[in-house]
Amino acid sequence: MLENLTDYAKQAVLAAKAEARFGGHKYISTEHILLGILGDSNGLAAKILNSCGIDVNVSREHVMKLIGIGGGCVGLSCEDLRFTYDAKNVLDFSLKHAKSLGHDYVDTMHLLLGLLQGTNGVVTQLLESQ
Protein backbone atom coordinates (compact mmCIF):
# COMPACT_ATOMS: atom_id res chain seq x y z
CA MET A 1 0.00 0.00 0.00
CA LEU A 2 2.81 2.45 0.85
CA GLU A 3 5.23 1.43 -1.86
CA ASN A 4 5.70 3.77 -4.83
CA LEU A 5 5.42 6.89 -2.66
CA THR A 6 7.47 9.91 -3.68
CA ASP A 7 9.69 11.47 -1.04
CA TYR A 8 7.06 14.17 -0.45
CA ALA A 9 4.29 11.59 -0.04
CA LYS A 10 6.45 9.50 2.32
CA GLN A 11 7.17 12.63 4.31
CA ALA A 12 3.43 13.40 4.47
CA VAL A 13 2.61 9.88 5.73
CA LEU A 14 5.39 10.04 8.33
CA ALA A 15 4.13 13.47 9.38
CA ALA A 16 0.59 12.02 9.67
CA LYS A 17 1.93 9.37 12.05
CA ALA A 18 3.77 12.02 14.05
CA GLU A 19 0.65 14.23 14.19
CA ALA A 20 -1.39 11.30 15.50
CA ARG A 21 1.16 10.52 18.17
CA PHE A 22 1.65 14.18 19.12
CA GLY A 23 -2.13 14.63 19.33
CA GLY A 24 -2.46 11.70 21.69
CA HIS A 25 -4.38 9.53 19.23
CA LYS A 26 -3.99 5.76 19.02
CA TYR A 27 -4.70 5.68 15.29
CA ILE A 28 -3.86 7.50 12.05
CA SER A 29 -6.97 9.02 10.50
CA THR A 30 -7.76 10.89 7.30
CA GLU A 31 -7.39 14.09 9.28
CA HIS A 32 -3.85 13.12 10.22
CA ILE A 33 -3.07 12.44 6.55
CA LEU A 34 -4.41 15.88 5.70
CA LEU A 35 -2.26 17.43 8.44
CA GLY A 36 0.72 15.59 7.00
CA ILE A 37 0.03 17.06 3.57
CA LEU A 38 -0.57 20.55 4.93
CA GLY A 39 2.63 20.41 6.96
CA ASP A 40 4.85 20.57 3.89
CA SER A 41 4.34 23.76 1.94
CA ASN A 42 6.68 22.46 -0.79
CA GLY A 43 4.50 19.45 -1.55
CA LEU A 44 2.36 19.50 -4.67
CA ALA A 45 -0.93 19.12 -2.75
CA ALA A 46 -0.18 22.13 -0.53
CA LYS A 47 0.73 24.16 -3.61
CA ILE A 48 -2.54 23.14 -5.28
CA LEU A 49 -4.53 24.15 -2.20
CA ASN A 50 -2.65 27.46 -2.01
CA SER A 51 -3.40 28.15 -5.67
CA CYS A 52 -7.09 27.62 -4.87
CA GLY A 53 -6.90 30.29 -2.17
CA ILE A 54 -6.68 27.85 0.73
CA ASP A 55 -4.43 29.12 3.53
CA VAL A 56 -2.45 26.08 4.67
CA ASN A 57 -1.81 27.44 8.17
CA VAL A 58 -5.47 28.31 8.75
CA SER A 59 -6.40 24.89 7.39
CA ARG A 60 -4.05 23.13 9.82
CA GLU A 61 -5.59 25.01 12.74
CA HIS A 62 -9.09 24.12 11.52
CA VAL A 63 -8.26 20.40 11.24
CA MET A 64 -6.57 20.36 14.65
CA LYS A 65 -9.71 21.85 16.20
CA LEU A 66 -11.82 19.20 14.46
CA ILE A 67 -9.84 16.25 15.76
CA GLY A 68 -8.96 17.58 19.21
CA ILE A 69 -6.61 15.89 21.62
CA GLY A 70 -6.80 12.14 22.06
CA GLY A 71 -6.64 10.08 25.22
CA GLY A 72 -2.94 9.53 24.85
CA CYS A 73 -0.69 6.93 23.36
CA VAL A 74 1.92 6.66 26.08
CA GLY A 75 4.39 3.94 25.27
CA LEU A 76 3.35 3.70 21.63
CA SER A 77 5.79 4.44 18.86
CA CYS A 78 4.70 5.69 15.45
CA GLU A 79 5.10 2.14 14.16
CA ASP A 80 2.47 0.94 16.66
CA LEU A 81 -0.17 3.33 15.32
CA ARG A 82 -2.55 1.86 12.75
CA PHE A 83 -4.46 3.51 9.94
CA THR A 84 -8.22 3.77 10.36
CA TYR A 85 -10.47 2.10 7.80
CA ASP A 86 -11.12 5.46 6.10
CA ALA A 87 -7.41 6.32 6.07
CA LYS A 88 -6.63 2.97 4.43
CA ASN A 89 -9.28 3.74 1.82
CA VAL A 90 -7.67 7.12 1.15
CA LEU A 91 -4.33 5.41 0.53
CA ASP A 92 -6.03 2.90 -1.79
CA PHE A 93 -7.89 5.69 -3.64
CA SER A 94 -4.60 7.58 -3.98
CA LEU A 95 -2.95 4.62 -5.67
CA LYS A 96 -5.94 4.17 -7.99
CA HIS A 97 -5.86 7.86 -8.94
CA ALA A 98 -2.14 7.66 -9.65
CA LYS A 99 -2.61 4.61 -11.87
CA SER A 100 -5.57 6.19 -13.68
CA LEU A 101 -3.33 9.15 -14.53
CA GLY A 102 -0.65 6.81 -15.84
CA HIS A 103 1.70 7.51 -12.93
CA ASP A 104 3.82 4.77 -11.41
CA TYR A 105 4.22 6.76 -8.18
CA VAL A 106 1.96 8.28 -5.52
CA ASP A 107 2.60 11.93 -4.67
CA THR A 108 0.85 14.31 -2.28
CA MET A 109 -1.46 15.33 -5.13
CA HIS A 110 -2.73 11.74 -5.29
CA LEU A 111 -3.13 11.69 -1.51
CA LEU A 112 -5.22 14.86 -1.79
CA LEU A 113 -7.37 13.25 -4.50
CA GLY A 114 -7.80 10.23 -2.24
CA LEU A 115 -8.89 12.49 0.61
CA LEU A 116 -11.40 14.23 -1.65
CA GLN A 117 -12.87 10.85 -2.57
CA GLY A 118 -12.87 9.65 1.05
CA THR A 119 -16.09 9.13 2.92
CA ASN A 120 -15.81 11.49 5.87
CA GLY A 121 -15.34 14.67 3.86
CA VAL A 122 -12.80 16.49 6.04
CA VAL A 123 -11.16 18.03 2.99
CA THR A 124 -14.56 18.99 1.60
CA GLN A 125 -15.44 20.67 4.92
CA LEU A 126 -12.11 22.44 4.84
CA LEU A 127 -12.59 23.70 1.29
CA GLU A 128 -16.11 24.88 2.07
CA SER A 129 -14.95 26.72 5.20
CA GLN A 130 -12.46 28.91 3.31
TrEMBL record:
The keyword Hydrolase applies. Keywords: ATP-binding, Hydrolase, Nucleotide-binding, Protease, Repeat. It comes from the Eukaryota. GO terms for biological process: proteolysis. Pfam families: Clp_N. Residues 2-130 form the Clp R domain. GO terms for molecular function: ATP binding; peptidase activity. This is ATP-dependent clp protease ATP-binding protein. It comes from Trifolium pratense.
